[in-house]
Amino acid sequence: MKKIHILLINAFVRPFIVTFFVVMFILLMFFLFKYVDDLIGKGFEWYVILELMFYAAAAQVAMALPLAVLLSSIMTFGTLGENYELVAIKSAGVSLQKAMMPLFVVIIMLSVSAFLFSEYMLPKTNLKFGSLLWDIRNKKLAFLIKEGVFNNSIPGYSIRVDKKWDDGRLEGIMIYQANEKNDIANIIMAKEGTMNKTPDNNTLLLNLKDGVRYEEAAGKTSYYNPRQELYRMRFKQTNVTFDLSSFKMNKTDQNSFRGNNAMLNLKGLVHKKDSLTKELDSINRSAKENIGSYYKQNNYTKGYTKIKIKPIIIKGNIMNTIPKNDRAMVAQSALDIANAVHQSALTRKAEHQDRSINLIKIDIEYWKKYTLATSCILLFFIGAPLGAIIRKGGMGLPVVMAVIFFLIYHIISTVSEKSAVQGNLEPVAGAWMAIILLSPLAAFLTYKATVDSALFDAGYYKSLIVNLFKRKNKASL
User: Is the pLDDT of residue 267 over 60?
Assistant: First the structure.
């Protein structure tokens, strides 16, 4: 390998690694902002949050990798152009295409790795990420006692304390316990106490001192003398226990999430598509038989017969052929049959539409495993010539240009996929639309960079405008 190839690879790899982790960090921050309400106040251990962040980072690779390729390509060739290194490379007889060739090999290897990652690793990480996120979002809030505030986290209890210390000591305790039988609250008040948990964290133990318990109960009442009894019991020390097992995070079986499209590889997607296709065919046959049964011709005059009766053509109002006494009954019977056919058709239509949309989503997910690898190549051929044209390195203009082109790619991809789900596009076209539309742009930028075009040079356009006005002035004179 030539030294110039090693120089170009080193100039690309360093910004690629930096930009990849920067983009990944930004995407993880967006993830935290989205699910912050589901993570705060539930008493998770640090390793649970770290595990969730790891799976979330793996799930964001599909968006972070193409953006990192685009940004690092612009930065690499922009820096080479800004430092006149690209001019020196061309003066040595190495064209832009030859200079891009070693990086193209690196991008090919990166694209193959991205495909293998989306095929083997991404379904597993999506499965673990989806199941863990489900468990976290459905976990109850952690039991927290705050000073001067009634806490209703534990079902059937409302607890309030005047003062709380970090070592578990409490002061001014008031506990309301609802009685499920008669909706009468029992009240416990204590001057001080301590709060501890059992080693398995399933039980909260309150040791109360110097308090009183109030209990209400229905006394011996009659129609003329209704009354209610109140019991008051003072204590020097007592214990109150609370069950905290419902606050623990329960692990959901991951097999219940395996049917999701994002958690399947190519083989799983093909198998699921075949199953849904068979279900769709079964629904169509069932609908045809069910609705067609209302229109079958029967002959009940001489029992069942296979001989078809010729249809009778009636001219004019069909109700005139029916006796007046039977017209209401016949009309109601026809209306009932029509309503039954309509309801059956609506049910079959909903089932057919649901499975048809699922088939489209499966096709889109199938092709997205290929578009992830192809998008890296496409964005490289946009970023590399774009950097050679703008001739600016660093994190300024390259970042702006990278974000603009990536947003264009992402918006086209999102809109086309939604159009495919709605039935306006074929699933293949919806998955590949962004690459199809931006490929001519990549070819155009590569051509402009090869011929050293001043495509983004403001001075070039300014001189064109000035020369145009000079020509107009000369023509007027």
Answer: yes
